[in-house]
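Hi all, posting the design record for the shared folder.

TITLE: backbone redesign
STEP: 1 of 1
STRUCTURE INPUT:
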């Protein structure tokens, strides 16, 4: 499915959602109980999907929408049973949004034949919109982006992330500590930032050199994977093999940073 001729419509739809939430940012009190938190997250999801579907479905016809339940591991192990469908990470970094701090985005990805084919990540606080179409390159506010050209690990920035699924593994402590040790031994700067898709987009824009996560978080990755890949990034699992849907880890970065990560 060729998106290029109508990409601006999808991008504007995502921006409209982001602008709505920007207008509401820091107006509601920070949730103080688990029930309040989950209730507010549900409201955010409902508003996002309602607004997006209204604008997207008008342009793109009857393309179905799949559920994005990041708390359900099984739903992230394989693509939904559609030839082509939309998947929306309704607000990547919603916890930051609710806590009144930066680091939240609206992400949308079109999946075709089990692979990301078109994706958008919009950061309302900076008014930065990343998008990519398979084999057509990656863009930031309409301008092409490419990964960093850094050669030295001393000034590379590596990110270590984890999601809600981490503790579903009985060896999560070993996995996380091993990943942290590996990164801190090899790279000059190691951080943990927040919205996973945006960090992958930042790799595409040359702002981050390596992103590593050692647990299953497929839906949070998909939009950013396409942007990073189209900008020239390498996408692997933590065992060094090419990343595939269902892998419970991911390494995304420049070819130089990925090679450094796997050095003995």
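Okay, here is what came back for every position:
SEQUENCE:
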């Amino acid at each position: 499915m060729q998106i290029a001729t109508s990409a601006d419509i999808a991008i504007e739809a995502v921006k409209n959602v982001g602008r709505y939430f920007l207008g509401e940012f820091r107006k509601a009190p920070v949730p103080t109980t688990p029930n309040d938190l989950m209730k507010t997250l549900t409201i955010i999801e409902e508003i996002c999907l309602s607004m997006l579907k209204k604008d997207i479905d008008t342009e793109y016809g009857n393309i179905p929408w799949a559920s994005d339940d990041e708390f359900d591991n099984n739903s992230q192990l394989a693509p939904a049973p559609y030839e082509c469908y939309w998947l929306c990470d309704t607000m990547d970094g919603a916890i930051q949004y609710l806590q009144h701090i930066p680091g939240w985005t609206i992400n949308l990805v079109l999946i075709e034949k089990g692979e990301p084919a078109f994706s958008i990540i919009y950061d309302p606080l900076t008014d930065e919109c990343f998008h990519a179409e398979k084999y057509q390159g990656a863009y930031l506010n309409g301008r092409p982006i490419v990964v960093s050209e850094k050669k030295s690990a001393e000034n590379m920035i590596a990110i270590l992330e984890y999601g809600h699924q981490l503790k579903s593994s009985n060896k999560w402590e070993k996995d996380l500590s091993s990943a942290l040790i590996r990164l801190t031994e090899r790279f000059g700067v190691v951080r943990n930032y927040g919205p996973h898709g945006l960090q992958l987009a930042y790799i595409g824009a040359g702002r981050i050199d390596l992103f590593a996560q050692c647990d299953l978080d497929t839906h949070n990755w998909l939009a950013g994977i396409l942007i990073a890949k189209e900008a020239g990034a390498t996408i692997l699992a933590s065992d060094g093999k090419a990343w595939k849907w269902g892998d419970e880890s991911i390494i995304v970065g420049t070819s130089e940073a990925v090679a450094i990560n796997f050095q003995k």
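COMMENT: Residues 34-60 form the longest helix (27 residues).
Let me know if anyone wants the other runs.
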